[in-house]
């Protein structure tokens, strides 16, 4: 009896050993674990600035050894929520996130946090300092303070201007506007004739500028909350035969804007660094997934003023070496 | 032996549990956090001005050391002595110096520092976050959003205009010597320095 039992046990051990050995020898290769996935959720890919942000984040995540997928929220909070529902149920390990709305997007980030998926915001913040692991943001206020000072100098403190705002639900819109006005409003002879949103969209900005020019014949300048709108405003100004008479100011540091400044079509822009923000977010996600939990909640990224005097130092969204 | 080991282990576990149940922080830090609970930029700035200004002034970098440091390995110097908010090439310093006023107009007073660096102190409008960021009194992580964080600058800038500059403005004239402690911003990719804007936390007229 005892011998039978020992024999059976020995046979079982040999059988399992053979199974293990064969499985490791199959095809001459070991079974490789799949890569972790990172989601890159961008507010809209209809704007070149955000394309750079998203593509850079994706490239950096891949370089760090992850699979990365880009999601376009089309500036639609509902679409963004759908993406997050997908992300939460599909095994993603982290989200690099450019929110559509500072308040509306909080619920998505909180849902991800609850599911144990860290979120790193890029460029746009959410109005919750605990939900995201870190928020990497341009210092829009300081950038537009510098722009406002240049604006005042350009007009020697006198003139009429209009302002075209970005998305009203985006804190960046108000940081930029407030930064600009914190300077310009101290000069009572600089008069704002109109202020209207064009949602950061080039075509909408063209239409808004057209209607502003119809309502006010004495506009000297337009300050736009981003370069895409500045390009749209410039198109309207050009079509009205007022190029050179209405000066255009933007924000972002896009290739179009840098070229326009070189060509004398635009006066200035605030250069943001989306590649820096995107790479930092991907690196933070990598550190987090490797166990690091020590992150600053808000990481401001400096904005630099680009004017005709220094435009030679800049390329699209970056300072040249 | 076994019983005494059990007692020792139980004691260690108890001490560890007690240790992790409490944390300590200084009273001043606690009071500062209380200020942040319901956000009022004036209260937050006034508190820091009253309790932290003296320390800031005491640790200001002397002018000669500041310029010498930037002439060498500027990046290393800036990383050691300066402050940076987040990511960027702009570093903030608090500098102490004496200088003679070279000229004054309705907006600014003008000085020459270190033989050939033109410096400007604004008298009517102070813009930017320079004074806030050089002080290192405020951490953006403590604020719900960047608009609240920026509101601190607006109030601090007004305070400097009203309490530091306005009382002395009629005495500023060319040839007058002043001593000051001021916030300075340097972009380390734009060196050597040719011009500086100074936002003073303290100014004294020497002559």
Overall description:
- The complex is a heterodimer of chains A (about 325) and B (about 210).
- Chain A is an alpha/beta fold and about 325 residues long.
- Chain A has ten helices and 14 strands.
- The model of chain A is unreliable at about 20-30 (pLDDT under 50).
- In chain B, strands 1, 2, 3, 4, 5, 6 and 7 form a seven-stranded mixed sheet that branches.
- Chain B has helices at about 1-20, 25-35, 40-60, 65-70, 75-80, 130-135, 145-165; strands spanning about 60, 90-105, 110-115, 115-120, 175-185, 195, 200-205.
- Chain B is elongated and about 85 Å long.
- The longest helix of chain B is centred in the first third of the chain and has 20 residues, at about 1-20.
- Chain B has about 210 residues and is an alpha/beta fold.
- The model of chain B has no long low-confidence stretch (mean pLDDT about 90).
- In chain B, about 45% of the residues lie in helices and about 25% in strands.
- The chains are: A alpha/beta (about 325), B alpha/beta (about 210).
- At the A-B interface, helix 5, helix 6 and strand 11 of A face helix 7 of B.
Number of E-type strands of chain A: 14
Biggest sheet of chain A, strands in spatial order?
A: 2-1-3-4-5-11
Shape of chain A: elongated
Taken as a percent bin, the fraction of beta residues of chain B is 15-25%
Radius of gyration of chain B: 23 Å
The whole-number mean of residue pLDDT values of chain B reads 89
The most extensive interface, with participating residues per chain, is:
A-B, 35 and 25 residues
Describe the structure using short key phrases.
heterodimer, A: 321 residues, alpha/beta, 4-stranded parallel β-sheet, 45% helix, elongated, B: 207 residues, 7-stranded mixed β-sheet
């Amino acid at each position: 009896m005892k011998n039978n039992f020992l024999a059976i046990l020995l046979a079982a051990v040999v059988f399992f050993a053979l199974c293990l050995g064969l499985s490791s020898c199959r095809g001459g290769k070991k079974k490789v674990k799949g890569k972790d996935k990172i989601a890159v959720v961008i507010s809209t890919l209809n704007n070149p600035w955000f394309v750079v942000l998203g593509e850079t984040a994706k490239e950096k995540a891949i370089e760090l050894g992850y699979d990365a997928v880009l999601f376009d929220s089309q500036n639609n909070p509902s679409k963004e929520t759908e993406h997050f529902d997908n992300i939460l149920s599909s095994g993603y390990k982290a989200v690099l996130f450019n929110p559509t709305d500072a308040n509306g997007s909080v619920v998505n980030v909180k849902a991800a946090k609850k599911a144990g998926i860290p979120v790193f915001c890029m460029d746009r913040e959410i109005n919750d300092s605990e939900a995201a692991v870190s928020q990497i943001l341009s210092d829009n206020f300081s950038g537009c303070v510098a722009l406002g000072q240049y604006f005042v100098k350009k007009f020697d403190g006198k003139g009429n201007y209009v302002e075209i705002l970005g998305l009203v639900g985006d804190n960046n819109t108000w940081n930029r506007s407030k930064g600009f006005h914190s300077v310009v409003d101290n000069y009572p002879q600089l008069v704002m004739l109109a202020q209207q949103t064009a949602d950061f969209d080039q075509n909408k900005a063209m239409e808004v500028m057209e209607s502003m020019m119809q309502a006010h014949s004495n506009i000297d300048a337009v300050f736009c909350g981003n370069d895409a709108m500045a390009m749209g405003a410039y198109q309207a100004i050009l079509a009205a035969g007022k190029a050179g008479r209405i000066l255009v100011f933007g924000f972002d540091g896009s290739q179009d804007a840098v070229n326009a400044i070189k060509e004398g079509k635009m006066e200035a822009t605030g250069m943001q660094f989306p590649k820096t923000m995107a790479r930092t977010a991907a690196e933070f996600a990598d550190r987090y997934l490797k166990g690091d939990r020590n992150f600053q909640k808000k990481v401001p990224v400096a904005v630099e003023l680009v004017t005709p005097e220094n435009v030679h130092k800049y390329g699209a969204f970056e300072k040249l070496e | 032996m076994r019983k005494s080991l059990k007692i020792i282990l139980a004691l260690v576990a108890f001490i560890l549990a007690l240790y992790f149940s409490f944390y300590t922080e200084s009273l001043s830090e606690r009071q500062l956090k209380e200020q942040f609970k319901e956000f009022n930029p004036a209260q937050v700035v006034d508190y820091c001005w009253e309790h932290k200004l003296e320390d800031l002034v005491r640790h200001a970098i002397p002018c000669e050391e500041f310029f010498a440091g930037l002439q060498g390995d500027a990046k290393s110097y800036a990383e050691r002595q300066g402050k940076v908010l987040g990511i960027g090439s702009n570093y903030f310093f608090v500098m102490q110096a004496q200088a003679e006023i070279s000229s004054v107009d309705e907006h600014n007073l003008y000085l020459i520092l270190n033989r050939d660096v033109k410096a400007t102190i604004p008298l009517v409008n102070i813009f930017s976050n320079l004074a806030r960021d050089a002080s290192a009194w405020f951490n953006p992580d403590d604020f719900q959003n960047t608009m609240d964080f920026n509101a601190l600058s607006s109030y601090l800038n007004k305070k400097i205009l009203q309490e530091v500059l306005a009382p002395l403005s009629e005495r500023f004239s060319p040839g007058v010597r002043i001593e000051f402690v001021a916030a300075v911003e340097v972009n380390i990719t734009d060196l050597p320095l040719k011009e500086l804007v100074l936002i003073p936390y303290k100014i004294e007229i020497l002559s």
